[in-house]
Amino acid sequence: ELTTMKISVFLFILFFQTIAYCQELAVVNNIVGRDKISLNGNWQILIDPYENGFYDYRLKESQSGYFLNEKPKTKQGLIEYDFVKSDYLNVPGDWNSQREKLELYEGTVWYQKNFDYPLKKDKRLFLYFGACNYYSIVYLNGKKLGEHEGGFTPFCFEVTGKVNSKENNVVVKVDNKRRADGVPTTNTDWYNYGGITRDVYVAETSENFIQDYKLNLTNGDFKTIHISVKLNKPESKNIKLLIPELKISKELAANSNGEASLSINSKPILWSPENPKLYDVYLVKDTDTLKDRIGFRTIETKGQDILLNGKSIYLKGISIHEEIPQRAGRANGPEDAKLLLGWAKELGCNYVRLAHYPHNEAMLKMADEMGLMVWSEIPVYWTIHYEDQNVLKKAKDQLNAMVTQNKNRASIIIWSMANETPVSDDRNNFIKSLCDYTRSLDNTRLLSAALEISHKENDTNILDDPLGEYLDVLGCNEYLGWYEGKPEDALTKTWKTIYNKPMVISEFGGGALYGFHGEKDERFTEEYQEYLYVNQLAMLDKIPFLKGISPWILVDFKSPRRQLHGIQDGWNRKGLLSDRGFKKKAWFTLNKYYKHKK
Ligand code: GCB
Description:
TIM Barrel; 18% helix; globular; Ig-like_GH2; EC 3.2.1.31
């Protein structure tokens, strides 16, 4: 009796959850490549720390909140907000760097924009957000479309039949309050930029469209391109694939599930940092033509080696946050990507660690074009709630979005599950579950996580984290000479691991204020940082299973954890470049090292 009741209550809840969120569509691959209009530009805003536009005075979800964008109908009418008369913000962009009064704001901002749309017959429409940090609720023409949690991943709502040709009203409630049960959680060492930080589009497709696709080689075989395509709905239908430069023109037959796959004999020029060859690829379904630029390469490990296109490589890397120093704000788009990755190239890198969350799509496309291998990560960082199954679900959603959006980028060789997570059964199970899930989404890349030195025996650093078993590459962050010991202590250290796997040092480094000079034992001088790099590089060179490094970090970045007046002033100073992009001494140390490193 009781169980039947429990089951029906459960089904009832499940049913309502499904209808409440039915409109957030599974991630659509390559929205940018579809017919679309941009909703970027100025949006009117209301700053709403009390969430007055969402809750009524009984703290119930209001039926007449700011999302209605109402105007008084008579002279006597009372509406206590007006988007038109309010301030505005540029989209894409964080709010903190655009308005001084929002610099440290954590809470709700309402965004509003009107748009017209050239409606066509038989087209489906989607409202797409590249990312909003952190929690968003989206309304169109006064009605809620849905909600999205997660600050660095795209989301999309179907709006077919809901868009008018003129004067549509879209309102987004963006809330960047840090949440204990969020991914990340309340504590991070980066700035909590809020807002609609990436591009917004209305995209259109034909009735059934290509939802997802992947083109890749498999390890050990450079003569077969594998392609798989998934339609949005089940339909047996032919899809055309064109890769003109390879003289490929093929029909793929989707089965009744709407899935097609094909292996094609072809010998593409392989993508590599030395020659980042990309091919124009077209997929045609009905009236939709989807264009992409795709490179072909393989990546695998063999014992303690990492092999790119079958050959052993060393990852000469640098870590990067998605922050642009010139604006002291979130980076987005090709121009920012060119600047950040251009610096990495100039430094002599063949690899970048994009920390600590999925970066915007333009960054990955630029890495493809420039020939930089990429480590791409989700913000499973420090002390997120590993025991909570809902948190696991959130992490998986972010993984899924990251992988779906970027899986055709040849540059990405490593999916990173986590950063500096404290060992426990809950954490081990959590991240193991993420590994299994990632492999089910994409088995053509390596999995890693930034671990820490497990323990020390005299001068030996030992890496035996139980997660090592599930990873392909062992990532390790270490701060010898900064958070512990002196820089020269590195010289007497040796390293051991219980795993027959390659290791990358995913972080090392120390802080320096650009232009602050002194002796090499004085903290925060450029000389200290330089000395730390010299000693670190000498130590690292002697570790036989070390197959790459991504020192922390390319550019100084904002972090409220960094308070030291006159030195930090709200910035983490571990950049090789200052907050204005000037080179510190350690830049030249690493640059020289990479020039000579085989
Ligand atoms: C770390 C974290 C990174 C921090 C860095 C630091 O280990 O992974 O997010 O910013 O140390 O500077 O302390």
